[in-house]
Design brief:
Blueprint (H helix, E strand, L loop, with lengths): L4 H17 L2 E6 L5 H13 L2 E5 L2 H11 L11 E6 L5 H12 L4 E7 L2 E3 L1 H8 L4 H40 L1
Antiparallel strand pairs: 1-3, 1-4, 2-3, 4-5
Length: 171
């Protein structure tokens, strides 16, 4: 069933509003994706504070012009938009991880911090470790020398106790 002009205007308004408040955006091609898989992907993206929207390419183009964004490439395939509103990377990561397990979802291009990025750059961003993983790595790096020093100091005590026990056994 064809959309009326009012329905199309409402879709463009909603997309333009989401485009203006997004922190990052990824265009995905979902051709061949099953409805259950699409629902699962929507749920995963929503858990990260993002949103998955599907719209016609012409409506996406109109909404991007209304939001002040210029699309540098012509979009091909059945297009879905993955918006990130809270953490700019987590929604990208969710879409990327889903695309690894389901080959019907293809990451296309995206927008990050107001700049248009190619597919490779989007995938590189999605593969970055999370903030918590980076903090854990820093803590490990800081605590490693201290724990080695403690281990060395305990080694001297251990050797002394071992030596004393050997002297007692030999007497």
């Amino acid at each position: 069933m064809a959309l009326t002009k009012a329905q199309k205007q409402k879709i463009v308004e909603g997309l333009a509003q989401n485009l203006s408040r997004q922190k990052s955006l990824v265009f995905v091609d979902f051709k061949g994706l099953k409805v259950n898989d699409m629902a699962y992907l929507r749920k995963k993206i929503k858990e990260t504070g993002g949103l998955l929207k599907v719209a016609k390419k012409t409506l996406i183009k109109l909404a991007s012009e209304k939001a002040g964004l210029t699309l540098e490439k012509e979009l091909e395939g059945e297009i879905g938009l993955v918006f990130a509103f809270e953490d700019p990377i987590s929604s990208l990561r969710a879409a990327y991880q889903f695309s690894q397990s389901n080959r019907n979802l293809k990451i296309l291009d995206g927008i990050f911090e107001g700049k248009f990025l190619e597919r490779g750059d989007i995938i590189t961003l999605a593969q970055l470790p999370t903030r918590e993983e980076l903090l854990a790595s820093v803590v490990r790096s800081i605590s490693a020398p201290i724990s080695r020093l403690v281990n060395v100091l305990q080694g001297n005590l251990r050797n002394l106790v071992y030596l004393l026990s050997q002297i007692k056994v030999n007497q």
